[in-house]
Structure formats: C-alpha cells, structure tokens
Here is the input.
Amino acid sequence: MPRLSAWFVRAALVYLGLGFTFGGLLLANKGVPLHPLTWRLLPAHIEFLLFGWTLQLAFGVAFWILPRWQTQRGDVRPAWAALILLNAGIWLVALTGWLDWPAWSLALGRLLEATAIIAFAIHAWPRIKPWVEAPA
Ligand code: HEM
Here is the structure.
C-alpha cells in the first residue's frame, strides 16, 4: 500500500472510532441525560463518519487501486493536498459545532472540504481509464 493510502486509511479508522464513540454518547444521552453539552457532539459525529471515515477510506483505497502508468500514479501532489485540506476542513466544521464558533468558520471548513474533493478529482481523473488489451 502506498504511503498516502496508509495515511488516509489510518486517519479513517481513527475517525470511525471517534464517530461511533460520539454516536454512542449521543444515543446514551437520549435515555440517560449525561450533560447538557453532549448534544453539541452531533456535528462532530456527522462530520467524522461521513467525511472522516467514509470519504477518506474511499480516497485511500482509490489512490492505491486506480489504474497506473506502469508503476507511476501521475501527479500525486493534489492527492496529498486533499489529505491535508480534508482533515483541516473536518476539524474546522466539527469544532465550530462543538465550541459554537461563528458561521464563517463553518463556511471555511466546508470550503476546505470541497477543495479537497476537487483536488482529489484532479489527481484521479486521468487514472480512470479502461484496460488496453494486448493484441492476440
Ligand atoms: C457510518 C455510520 C454513521 C453515520 C454516517 C451517521 C450519521 C449521522 C447523521 C447524518 C446524523 C444526523 C441525522 C439527522 O439530523 O436527522 C446522525 C445522528 C445520530 N447518530 Fe449517527 N451515524 C452513524 C453511526 C452511528 C452510530 C454507530 C451511533 C450510535 C452508537 C449513532 C448515533 C446517532 C445519534 C444518537 C444521532 C442523533 C439522532 C437524533 O437526531 O435524535 N450514529 N448520525
């Protein structure tokens, strides 16, 4: 597995653990109220599981497995940028909900996430190609 895929998948697993833990706390809080601020974990729960776990796992596996040119994966810089932008965006959105930060930080977080998706698409687009069959 390439180094970037290892980072994506490791980070995804950490978000899975955090996201399920927050989900469990939210669920428990519905039956037995734990703390008035527990409900503020909802944006982090959603962000960690939808973007941190699901999307990041897809990015990691796609970077690893999409067709290559011999051993080369093309321009890998946008894919590395996607890792950094996506994680910065996830934390900004999660912390905005948690700490009640202003609306602009939510918008900035979403912008970082959208830019990460565009950056990954720029990397992956040329790699989406059919096999060229060898002549019989
Ligand atoms: C990949 C897995 C998961 C995803 C993508 C996910 C996503 C979401 C989303 C989008 C919401 C907001 C729903 C809304 O506002 O209508 C939500 C709410 C919630 N989730 Fe999850 N979730 C996942 C797993 C879990 C797990 C494992 C638990 C519990 C152990 C959990 C507990 C909750 C609770 C308690 C709420 C609040 C429900 C309410 O509005 O009353 N989630 N989740």
